[in-house]
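G., the chain you wanted modeled:
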Amino acid sequence: MIKWRRLLTTLCVGTVLLTACNKNDDVAIIITTTQNELTTQETTPEETTTPEETTTPEETTTPEETTMPETQTEPVTLSEDERRALLNQEAAQAVPGIVCWGDSLTYGYVGNGESYPGTLQRLIDERLISGIPVVNNGVCVEQTYTIMARAGVWPMMVDSFVMPSGIAPVEIHVNLKNGMYTNLTCFGDAGLNPVTIAGVRGILTSSYHEDDYGYCYFTRIEPGEEVYVEYGTPIEPASVNMYEDYINVIFMGENGYFHSADDLVLQYQRFIEGRGLTRYILIGLTTGDNNGRSVLEQKMTESFGDHYINMRTELVSRGPDIVGLERREDDWYNIQEGIVMRYLMSDDIHLNEYGYRAVGTIVYERMEALGYFDGIKNAIAKYGN
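Predicted structure as tokens:
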């Protein structure tokens, strides 16, 4: 097609040149230029179209060149000591420890050496990993406010006194924010010592007055200047700087000092907020029956959800089964009324070794259900146990 166009153009030009041969040279130049322009316009599109050359997807795609060969890495071999160290480190990061706050029911009074924190410790050691501490901060006879004071969530203060420069003990009078004088340290000091008063660290010990609570001895740890301590100066327990990221278990109220179900709920809320807790278990009272405890237990459930364990009903429904005791004929009455079986109790208030063991197992199961042990389980899956 291009050849025919060129031939036609040549014939036309030849005709024009023949016609204009007697005219001046300027005309011939103009005609020649026009012919060249026509030739260029006709041939340019065909010459510049090079689809095969501009389309180069296959040329730029070089998977064989860009795909790096897989690097063969030797598996890391850990010694037994290294594996154990990494396992313990990750487990401790997940659960640094567990601290149990309460009265004689936490302490394990008349439990023949058993306590629910002790059972909890044993279950963690056997089912998960050893080395996660379970701290028993139970002190006999204490009411809700003294338990809270030891935990650093309820203010305690001193009457005015002169702190000597030496390390000799000085008698002081301790009272709580609500004006209650307390028998603090008479039966234990778990989580309390060393305390800090007016910037001085020391140890509180009991100075029990039969007819008047609140007397203690304060013995400073290091000698220093004599200090006049004003009335109302706060006492800071050691616990305010302890148990960071620990799971807290709180079991209080059996010895009273709450006026209503709402009051006990508020005290628990103060405890939780005061220590900034996100992982915690609240143990419900184990005494009483369905009629007497229903209001309190309902409010606790509504306020704290799965963090709260209705321990009374748990012990009635499955306490004997947990510890492998056979049911008795008169259990039907306990189940009907919601009263913990006598063979799980040491007296009208305290549990026996089987009762404490059941409580510890139930607490462990609730922690597991809430996912508190997931980090430990992941570490075990990673490093073995």
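Confidence is low (pLDDT under 50) at residues 1-51, 53-57.

Shout if anything looks off.
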